[in-house]
Structures are given as structure tokens and as C-alpha cells.
């Protein structure tokens, strides 16, 4: 009973804040509503027992993506009202595409069938969810079973980083950098010059 | 507690990975002045890993949950890849210095690309295959665009990146189909599940995987990128592209076709036969009109891939032995030719036209003689090594009754002899317009001489290569 109530609470707030995201006039408000939607979706994940997904949603989407949006909205001078012009014009075609997708999903769901051997070969890898939490199960999969793939993926990211730096970083010569050693090594003789100035005359 | 996986079979790979990271750190702390030292250390690391490979490979060992396999086949091809990388790295050192493009990332990226190739060779799972291929390709995309202020190099890098990503997409699509129908990505399990017959989805997926790997070895009809990338990329990088990634991707193709898809030979052999015929024909006819020697080498490599694919189309132990011998000889011929190309300088500028070789026999008799040896060998003229490479694949084809392949192979090598001999004609019978520079580096001369002598001497001692290729091929079929 309580579970159902909580579900409807989370679901209603998610839908309402999602509507606000696209209808709010102030883009900062839209991003804040987006964060609210993420938190409530995380709550929905918790209800179905996917605590890992809930954590990732909060950490990755709220912590990184939404904050990035906020930065973009606040730092860039974009006229969002102008972007929204012609919204109604595209509504019919967008609606039709949505309907087609929905119909296709219904078709797939209606005629779905597993290959007869598939559950046999897949089933052996799935741990019992009542014994092992899904964070634990995913951790085992990534860091134990697929340890090798995880390491190669790390190396690929390293190559991507080296490549980006190699192809784009240029040493700039037109900036003045601070050199502490040079500053400390300065003496009075380097920087101060004493001249006798005749009274009434300039240097 | 679960036990740690067995790291010993992957020792050469782990060594290369650690040395790449150590050299990267060294380079970051020492800045540009350490580049030459890092290049030398990278060559040493590759050669040392080459020594580790045979030590790590006893019989067939599988580790990391069945994703990584080490056997005689992988040891043979890994040694070839490491040799090719070490050779091309040594050739690059001189070039980088002369073009004032010395940056420590170059040897590090080459090491990481080599690591990717070794992981590809040892892949025993579709996921491991994909990740190894990506590690290799990503490093190669960056290397192709390494000369970032040159428009052609940037274009080559971008072209290679876009088309390579397309190939990766095809590979993933094919793999997902195979996984969807077979329920597993491990090569061993796939082989077992296909023994009783396959659904049509697996065949479609397999064709996609073949297409993606054919892209990586630049076989027709997936060759379009090759001439442009070879021409645009810096010459030492082109030399690297022409040898190491091809050997790695080829051995991956052989392992995938013979291993998990071994029971579907009648389904894939027609695809491979078509690719082989088309590559041989295009390699022979496409190169005739070329004036840029790097483009010519691109078409020549497409043709060579076609010849090597004959061995795969045959699909038995003798055929795979032919492939391995062909690849080994191809390595030495190409490394030598590119070393001569890298030595072609006029007033310090690198020349790429075939006409620039005019009169080389009078100005540089030794380079001209070496180049003549390489060209005769590529054309398949006995008694040079290239002849034996072709002989072993054609013999395998005739034994199994693939007469068409052998006949087309002989005919196209006659056609290709035209443009190989044209280079010799230009070198020996044309008058020099402007002489090429002398003294272009001891390292290059050594590599040229070493490979030329190896190709001439091969006739007298083919048995050592042939016997090790036999054991390697047997390892693939024994398991």
C-alpha cells in the first residue's frame, strides 16, 4: 500500500517536472526541474530494487550532466525563446514519429520470443537477486569476470587522451608565465637604477 | 574469494603496456629532450617483448575467463608484428629528427598500437576482439594525422577515422547478431554451438564481421581508404600501416574464420574467394597508372592481401601455413622498400614521385640494387623470397582444387610485374634529373641492407620459416 503511494508520488512528480522542463520560460528553471525529475526517477529505480542505477543516475546525471547544462545555460548567451520559435509547427510531425515508434514497440513486445537455447546459456551468468545485491553483481562482472576488458577499455581511454593532446595542444608563446625561480633570483642591480637628475631638467 | 587469473600467458602484453606508460611518464617529465631516448627504449621494449612471446607460449593456454588465448599461432604472428613495429620505429626516428617533428608521444602511441595488435592476435572472444581492434585503430588514427600542420596528413587521419569507425560499427552489428543468435561471445563456445548447424542470423552477422576485418586488411571492396591514407600519412607511418596492422588483422581474420566459424567453411569460403579475386585484380590494375610511389605501394599491398587470402580461402592447415609464410615475407619486402623510399631526399625534402628515382643506379648504386631486389621479389620472380611466398599459397590452392584462384593469381602477378619492373627501368635506364641526397642515415641503410640480404638468402634456408609456420598453423587446427 505504502509502496504504491510512494510510487505514484515519485511518478507524478517526475512527469510534472518533465513537463515543466520543456515549458518553463526561464532556462535556469528548466534545468532545475530537470534535476528534480532525475531525483524522482532515481526514487522509482530504488522502488524496483535497482539501487545501483539509482545511485548512478544521481551521481552522473545530477552531479555532472545537469550541472554542465546549468553552466552552459548561464555562461552562453543563447536566446532560448528564439530557439523555441516554430515549436507548434513541428508538433504534428513529431507526434506522428512518436506514434510510429510506439506502434513498433507494441509490435515487438507482442511477438517477442526467445531462442530456445538462449536462456540456458544466459541463465548461468545471472546471480540470485535475493542473495547478491545488484551493485555487488555488477562489480563482480566488471572487476572480476571482465577484468581484462575493463583494463583494455582503460588503455583505449589513455590513447584517446594522448591523441587529443597531441593533435590539439599548441605551446603558446604569447602568454607571460610566472617563473618563481626567476623572480626570486632578481637582485637590486637588475631592477633598480639610480640616476642623478639635474634640477629643472628631465631624464 | 575468487582466484586471480593466470597472468603468465599475457606477460609480453603486460610488459608492453607498462613500458608504454613508463615512457609516457618519462616523456611528460623530461619534455622534448628525451624523445630520442624514448624512441630507442621503445624499440628495445618491442624486441624484448618479442623474446618474451615464445617464452610465454607453450601449448594452447586460455586465461582471463577464456578471453585471451596463447598458442603457437599467436606466438608466430606476434613476433612478426613486434618485428614490424620495431623496424618501422627505427625508420621513423631518423625522419622525425629531420622533419623537426620529434615528440615523445609518437613512440608511445606506436607502442600502444602494437599492444592493440597483440591483443587482437590473442583475442578469444568477440568483445576482446573489438577492444583490441579499437585500441589499435585509435592509436593509428592519431598517428595518421601526426603531422598536424600538413593538410594532407590531417585529411588522411580524418578519412581513416571516419571509414574506420564505419568498419567498427559493422563489426559491432555483426557481433551483436552473432551474440543474439548464439547466446555467447566466446570463440570456443561459438565453435561448439555452430557444430550442429546455424540460424541465418549468424551467417548475416558473420558476413558483417568479415566485411569489417576486410576493411582493416584493406581488401577489395573495402579498400577505398588505402591509397589516400597511404599517400597523405607521413611516410614512416605509412610504412607502419602497410605492415604491422595488416599482419595483426590478417591473423585475427584467420583465427575467427578457422576457430568459431570453422564449421561454416562452405558459407564463408565463397565470400573470401570473391574478396581475394577482387583484391588481386584491383591491386594489379589499379597500380599501373600511379605516379606516386606511396600510392603504388598502397595498391601493391591490396594485391598482396589478395594473394594471402587465397591461403585462407583454401582453409586447411596447408593454406594457413601459406598465409603465414606469405605474411612473413611480405613484412621484410615492405619494410625494405619503405626504408628506400624514406631515404629518397632531394635537398633535404622527402620525394615521393616514381620519376624522382630516375638514374638511382648511377647516383646510389647500393640503394638501387636493394630496391631492385625488393621489386623483383614483390613481382614474385624466383629465386627471391617473394616467389616462395606465392608458391606456397598457390600450391595449397591447387592441392585443394581451387584452380581458378591459382590461375587468376598467376595472371595478376604477371600484370603487377609491369609496374614493379617499371620502377627498376626508371632506376636503371633513365637519366637522373637531379640527384638524390647522400648520407640519409646509417639506421636506414642498415635496415635496407638487412632486408635485401634476407630476401636473397631466403632461397637457401627456407626450411626454418616454413617449419615454424607449419607448427603455428598446426596449433590453430590442433586445439
UniProtKB/TrEMBL annotation, chain A:
Domain of life: Bacteria
Main location: membrane
Catalyses which reaction(s): a quinone + NADH + 5 H(+)(in) = a quinol + NAD(+) + 4 H(+)(out)
Transmembrane regions: 6-24, 31-50, 56-78, 90-115, 146-169
Keyword Membrane annotated: yes
Annotated keywords: Cell membrane, Membrane, NAD, Quinone, Transmembrane, Transmembrane helix
Keyword Coiled coil: no
Gene Ontology cellular-component terms listed: plasma membrane
Compartment(s) of residence: Cell membrane
Signal peptide (UniProt feature, chain positions): none
EC number: 7.1.1.-
Gene3D superfamilies hit by this protein: NADH-ubiquinone/plastoquinone oxidoreductase chain 6, subunit NuoJ
MF (Gene Ontology): NADH dehydrogenase (ubiquinone) activity; quinone binding
Pfam families named among the record's database cross-references: Oxidored_q3
UniProt topology in membrane: Multi-pass membrane protein
Functional description taken from the UniProt entry: NDH-1 shuttles electrons from NADH, via FMN and iron-sulfur (Fe-S) centers, to quinones in the respiratory chain. Couples the redox reaction to proton translocation (for every two electrons transferred, four hydrogen ions are translocated across the cytoplasmic membrane), and thus conserves the redox energy in a proton gradient.
Family recorded in the similarity comment: Belongs to the complex I subunit 6 family.
Protein name (database record): NADH-quinone oxidoreductase subunit J
Source organism of this protein record: Telmatospirillum siberiense
Organism ancestry: Bacteria, Pseudomonadati, Pseudomonadota, Alphaproteobacteria, Rhodospirillales
UniProtKB/TrEMBL annotation, chain B:
Residues spanning the membrane: 6-26, 38-59, 79-97, 104-121, 158-182, 194-215, 236-258, 270-289, 296-314, 320-344, 365-389, 401-421, 442-461
Localization of this protein: Cell membrane; Endomembrane system; Membrane
Keyword Cell membrane: yes
Main localization category: membrane
Record GO biological process: ATP synthesis coupled electron transport
Protein's name in the database: NADH-quinone oxidoreductase subunit N
Keywords (A to Z) from UniProt: Cell membrane, Membrane, NAD, Quinone, Translocase, Transmembrane, Transmembrane helix, Transport, Ubiquinone
Amino acid at each position: 500500500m505504502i509502496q504504491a503511494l510512494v510510487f505514484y508520488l515519485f511518478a507524478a512528480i517526475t512527469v510534472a517536472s518533465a513537463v515543466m522542463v520543456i515549458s518553463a520560460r526561464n532556462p535556469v528553471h528548466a534545468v532545475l526541474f530537470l534535476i528534480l525529475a532525475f531525483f524522482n526517477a532515481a526514487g522509482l529505480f530504488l522502488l524496483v530494487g535497482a539501487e545501483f542505477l539509482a545511485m548512478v543516475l544521481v551521481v552522473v546525471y545530477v552531479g555532472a550532466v545537469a550541472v554542465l547544462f546549468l553552466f552552459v545555460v548561464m555562461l552562453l548567451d543563447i536566446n532560448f525563446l528564439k530557439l523555441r520559435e516554430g515549436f507548434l509547427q513541428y508538433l504534428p510531425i513529431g507526434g506522428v514519429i512518436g506514434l510510429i515508434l510506439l506502434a513498433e514497440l507494441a509490435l515487438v513486445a507482442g511477438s517477442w520470443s526467445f531462442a530456445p537455447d538462449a536462456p540456458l546459456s544466459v541463465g548461468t551468468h545471472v546471480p540470485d537477486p535475493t542473495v547478491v545485491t545488484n551493485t555487488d553483481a555488477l562489480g563482480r562482472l566488471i572487476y572480476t569476470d571482465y577484468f581484462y576488458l575493463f583494463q583494455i577499455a582503460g588503455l583505449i581511454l589513455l590513447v584517446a587522451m594522448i591523441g587529443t593532446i597531441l593533435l590539439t595542444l599548441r605551446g603558446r608563446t604569447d602568454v607571460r608565465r610566472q617563473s618563481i625561480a626567476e623572480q626570486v633570483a632578481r637582485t637590486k642591480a637588475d631592477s633598480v637604477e639610480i640616476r642623478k637628475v639635474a634640477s629643472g631638467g628631465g631624464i | 574469494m575468487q582466484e586471480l587469473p593466470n597472468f603468465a600467458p599475457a606477460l609480453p602484453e603486460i610488459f608492453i603496456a607498462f613500458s608504454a606508460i613508463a615512457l609516457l611518464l618519462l616523456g611528460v617529465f623530461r619534455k622534448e629532450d628525451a624523445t630520442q631516448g624514448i624512441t630507442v627504449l621503445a624499440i628495445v621494449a618491442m624486441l624484448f617483448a618479442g623474446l618474451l612471446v615464445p617464452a610465454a607460449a607453450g601449448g594452447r593456454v586460455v586465461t582471463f575467463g577464456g578471453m585471451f588465448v596463447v598458442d603457437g599461432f599467436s606466438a608466430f604472428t606476434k613476433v612478426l608484428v613486434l618485428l614490424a613495429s620495431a623496424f618501422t620505429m627505427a625508420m621513423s626516428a631518423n625522419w622525425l629528427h629531420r622533419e623537426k617533428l620529434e615528440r615523445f608521444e609518437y613512440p608511445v602511441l606506436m607502442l600502444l598500437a602494437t599492444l592493440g595488435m597483440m591483443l587482437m592476435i590473442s583475442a578469444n572472444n568477440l568483445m576482446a576482439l573489438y577492444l583490441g581492434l579499437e585500441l589499435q585503430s585509435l592509436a593509428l588514427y592519431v598517428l595518421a594525422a601526426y603531422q598536424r600542420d600538413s593538410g594532407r596528413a590531417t585529411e588522411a587521419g580524418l578519412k581513416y577515422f571516419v571509414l574506420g569507425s564505419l568498419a567498427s560499427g559493422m563489426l559491432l552489428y555483426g557481433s551483436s547478431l552473432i551474440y543474439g543468435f548464439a547466446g555467447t561471445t566466446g570463440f570456443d563456445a561459438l565453435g561448439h554451438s555452430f557444430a550442429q548447424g546455424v540460424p541465418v542470423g549468424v551467417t548475416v552477422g558473420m558476413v558483417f564481421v568479415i566485411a569489417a576485418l576486410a576493411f582493416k586488411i584493406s581488401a577489395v571492396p573495402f579498400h577505398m581508404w588505402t591509397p589516400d591514407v597511404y599517400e597523405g600519412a607521413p611516410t614512416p607511418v605509412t610504412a607502419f600501416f602497410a605492415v604491422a596492422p595488416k599482419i595483426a588483422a590478417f591473423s585475427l581474420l584467420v583465427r575467427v574464420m578457422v576457430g568459431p566459424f570453422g564449421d561454416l567453411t562452405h558459407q564463408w569460403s565463397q565470400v573470401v574467394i570473391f574478396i581475394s579475386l577482387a583484391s588481386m585484380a584491383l591491386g594489379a590494375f589499379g597500380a599501373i597508372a600511379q605516379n606516386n610511389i606511396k600510392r603504388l605501394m598502397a595498391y601493391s599491398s591490396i594485391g598482396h592481401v589478395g594473394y594471402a587470402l587465397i591461403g585462407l580461402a583454401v582453409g586447411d592447415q596447408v593454406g594457413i601455413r601459406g598465409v603465414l609464410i606469405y605474411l612473413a615475407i611480405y613484412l621484410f619486402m615492405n619494410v625494405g622498400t619503405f626504408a628506400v623510399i624514406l631515404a629518397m631526399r632531394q635537398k633535404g625534402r622527402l620525394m615521393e614521385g616514381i620519376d624522382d628515382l630516375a638514374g638511382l643506379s648511377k647516383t646510389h648504386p647500393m640503394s638501387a640494387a636493394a630496391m631492385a631486389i625488393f621489386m623483383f621479389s614483390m613481382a614474385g620472380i624466383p629465386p627471391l623470397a617473394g616467389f616462395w611466398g606465392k608458391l606456397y599459397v598457390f600450391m595449397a590452392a591447387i592441392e585443394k582444387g581451387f584452380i581458378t584462384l591459382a590461375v587468376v593469381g598467376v595472371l595478376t602477378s604477371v600484370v603487377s610485374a609491369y609496374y614493379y619492373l617499371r620502377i627498376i627501368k626508371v632506376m636503371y635506364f633513365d637519366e637522373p634529373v637531379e640527384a638524390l641526397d647522400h648520407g640519409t642515415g646509417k639506421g636506414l641503410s642498415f635496415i635496407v641492407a638487412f632486408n635485401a640480404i634476407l630476401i636473397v638468402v631466403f632461397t637457401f634456408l627456407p626450411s626454418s620459416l616454413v617449419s615454424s609456420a607449419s607448427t603455428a598453423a598446426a596449433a590453430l587446427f590442433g586445439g
